[in-house]
Amino acid sequence: MANRVRLDQILESLEVTNTLEGLQEIIERVRDLFAIDHMMYHWVDSAGDHYYFGTYSQAWIDQYQDKNYVRVDPVIAGCFQRFHPVDWKRLDWSGKPARAFLDDALEHGVGNQGYSVPIRGPNGQFALFTTSHNCSDEAWEKFTEKRSRDLILMAHFFNRKALEFETERAPEQSRALSPREIDAMTLLAMGHSRAQVAETLEISEHTLRVYIESSRHKLGAQNTTHAIAQAMARGLIVV
């Protein structure tokens, strides 16, 4: 409960900050709250400019840029092809350049475990929200199972704020959810299964699917998890 209260307070701070320095301070607070080694947010705006903030060492950031690791980084390649969050263990590290990159990252304290959330925004914007840590596979699996929903939520909150730095971006067009769609998305966000949601709302699972697909379309979401994150980020549902 204490962690949820602190997370809500951090999200409130994120909502009102208007500087990159403020975003940096907030991502450090989130990292400390989750008790992991690193968090990093990196985005490419519609003009192709790169921005980032996070907790990797400056030595690693400089090394990454000097070596032009973006060309061989399996996280970048893997996430650019996906819409779902990616556990680094599921990426292809078999190539010699990828293994050399991984060895260098480990030497710079990045961590042997990672979880990245790819985000696509308007006009070609692409972003990654990444969490990394040094621990066993078992400990990492427990962490991601417990925190994946929070990590996806944080990713979209940070991305929503980052888009405000694109001064030429047209205002985002939001389409309101219907009361029934709000009910369905709220219950799903609370962790109920589709069968439980349908029973609570006294509708068929087919009708529930219609509500979910309609919500996803209105929110421009790739899947149900993304739709929940978007609805929460825009304040359309409160859990």
Q: Care to give the gist of this entry?
A:
The protein is of the alpha+beta class. It has two domains: 162 residues, Beta-Lactamase, CATH 3.30.450; 55 residues, Arc Repressor Mutant, subunit A, CATH 1.10.10. The chain is built from ten helices and five strands.
Describe the structure using short key phrases.
239 residues, alpha+beta, Beta-Lactamase, Arc Repressor Mutant, subunit A, 2 domains, five-stranded antiparallel β-sheet, globular, TF_LuxR_autoind-bd_dom, TF_LuxR_autoind-bd_dom_sf, DNA binding, transcription
What does this protein look like?
- With 239 residues, the chain is of the alpha+beta class.
- The protein folds into two domains: 162 residues, Transcription factor LuxR-like, autoinducer-binding domain (Beta-Lactamase, 2-Layer Sandwich); 55 residues, Arc Repressor Mutant, subunit A (Orthogonal Bundle), CATH 1.10.10.
- The chain has ten helices and five strands.
- Strands 2-1-5-4-3 form a five-stranded antiparallel beta sheet, sandwiched between helices.
- Helix 6 crosses helix 10, helix 7 crosses helix 8 and helix 7 packs across helix 9.
- The longest helix has 27 residues.
- The chain is globular, with a radius of gyration of 19 Å.
- About 3% of the residues have low confidence.
Break the fold down into its secondary structure elements and pairings:
Layout: H1 2-16, H2 20-34, E1 38-44, E2 50-54, H3 58-66, H4 74-80, E3 86-87, H5 96-107, E4 113-120, E5 126-133, H6 137-163, H7 179-189, H8 194-201, H9 205-219, H10 224-233
Antiparallel strand pairs: 1-2, 1-5, 3-4, 4-5
